Amino acid sequence: MTAEDVGVGEDDMAEIARHTRHVVGGPVALGGAGDPSPYTALGVELAIRTALGEDDLAGAAITVAGLGHVGASLAELLARAGAHLTVTDLDPGKRALALRLGARWVEPGEAIAVRGDVYAPCALGGVLDPESVARLRVTVVAGAANNQLAERGVARALHDRGIRWAPDFIANAGGLIHVACELRSAGYEVDHVSRGVQAIAGTLRTVFDRAQGEDTTTLDAAEALVAERLAARN
Ligand SMILES: NC(=O)c1ccc[n+]([C@@H]2O[C@H](COP(=O)([O-])OP(=O)(O)OC[C@H]3O[C@@H](n4cnc5c(N)ncnc54)[C@H](O)[C@@H]3O)[C@@H](O)[C@H]2O)c1
After folding, report:
1. What is the number of domains present in the chain?
2. CB of 6 closer than 6 A to ligand 1?
3. 46 and 27 in one domain?
4. Domain membership of residue 25 as a residue range
């Protein structure tokens, strides 16, 4: 099955659906679940709260890198929660959103080194490598971007620096939970999606507790959890 991802929107899904039925997340008017991005953003916001161990984000200094479908939704949620936002995007047209949200704008190359609580990568993958991790000035990295680690060893570098990394495949699962609901035999149900997205917090808590208890990386802890869940299903 396919669905929206970076650079792709509902209209593209509608076009693809004209050629194959292996599509979810198409426009609601055409019977699809609609854009997953707002649900991805909700999950990332939860991931940030969980990683910080704080329900209240008022005053938290958070940098959102990438103000596309997910990053813009996330920035809106965080601004509403009272976070001190710093934002960036390659597209200077996104400065208008920064202005509307009262967020500080930095150039894309500067975002990773902004001092604060959280760095939220919401653009492309591979942003976390040994050099960029050395520049981080936050205690938490939690964002929507897929494949954030340039290579697995970077999870160890984050761990060694005492930076809590929310594995991307958990933090950004909200949109997938939303579109996958289309495939349920019971059909799409808002409550089902909402419970699934909320569960991201519990999953991440388990991962963080295990990583801390076993002095291992959050990547190792998350992958161990995946293996256990799959084994339990087989
Ligand atoms: N859309 C979803 O529901 C979803 C779900 C899971 C994961 N993701 C992942 O989240 C990320 C964002 O997805 P999206 O749907 O919001 O994409 P999008 O195409 O809507 O937005 C991406 C944004 O990132 C900006 N950008 C690209 N490179 C940049 C850089 N170096 N610095 C700053 N900004 C940069 C682009 O200009 C664009 O505004 C991707 O990695 C995607 O794979 C998205």
Report:
1. 2
2. yes
3. no
4. 1-35
Ligand 1 within 6 A of CB of 146:
yes
* Whether residue 75 is found in the same domain as residue 121: yes
What's the start-to-end Cα distance of the chain, in Å?
22
In a domain, 146, yes or no: yes
Same domain, residue pair 81 and 94: yes
Ligand 1 pocket residue status of 41, Cβ below 6 Å = no
pLDDT tens-digit profile, the chain (234 residues): 999 999 999 999 999 999 999 999 999 999 899 999 999 999 999 999 999 999 999 999 999 999 999 999 999 999 999 999 999 999 999 999 999 999 999 999 999 999 999 999 999 999 999 999 999 999 999 999 999 999 999 999 999 999 999 999 999 999 999 999 999 888 889 999 999 999 999 999 999 999 999 999 999 999 999 999 999 998
The residue among 126, 154, 140, 156 whose CA lies nearest residue 66 is: 126
Alpha carbon nearest to ligand 1 atom 39, residue: 68
Give the pTM.
Answer: 0.97
Q: Is 130 helix (H, G, I), strand (E, B) or coil?
A: helix
